[in-house]
Amino acid sequence: MRILTRMCTSLDGFVTTPDGRPVQVDYPAWDPEELGFYELQSLCGAVLMGRTTFEPALYAPFWPWGDLPVYVLGSQLRSDLPAEVVVDSDPVRLYERLLDDCQDADVHLVGGPLTVETYRRLGVLDELRLMVLPVLTGAGRQLTPDIGTDAVLSLIGIRDWPGGVTELAYEVEY
After folding, report:
1. Residue 10 is inside which H or E element, if any?
2. Of 45, 58, 28, which is closest to residue 109 (Cα–Cα)?
3. C-alpha–C-alpha distance, residues 35 and 65, integer Å
4. 68 close to 91: Cβ distance less than 8 angstroms
5. Which domains does the chain have, with CATH numbers?
6. pLDDT tens digit string along 111-136?
């Protein structure tokens, strides 16, 4: 099992807008299908995320993860969750559950810098992908300091997408 994440960032290095929304909401040409998010998801056997990323999906017009099982790091979630959602407040226990359930399948970690760093610090994040969007936000949340500057990353790929978006893929080394 490999855990990989793909995060969007502005050209000036912010993953959120100044008001805390994901930076891609300010990118006028945002299209998750055209930018390969569904393609990536189709290669994965599960989705892992933090509570803050997960909760808005409960109110989305459609369930963004299809029939993939969803694992949420968090507590105090609503009791009427879809059956395919597993919730645990302990990141190690949730990872062990993923190992038992997913074995050979890749897992897409969908989350903010804190959730990404939690799994990097555990030594189980395999790939960090950044989708650099051609927007400038001027402020917002950056990857660092939440993702430690001690992260050792090796570039494993660059991919151009429509609209001037570039994806940088890094292997996380331990």
Report:
1. strand 3-10
2. 45
3. 16
4. no
5. 3-173 (3.40.430.10)
6. 889 999 999 999 999 999 999 999 99
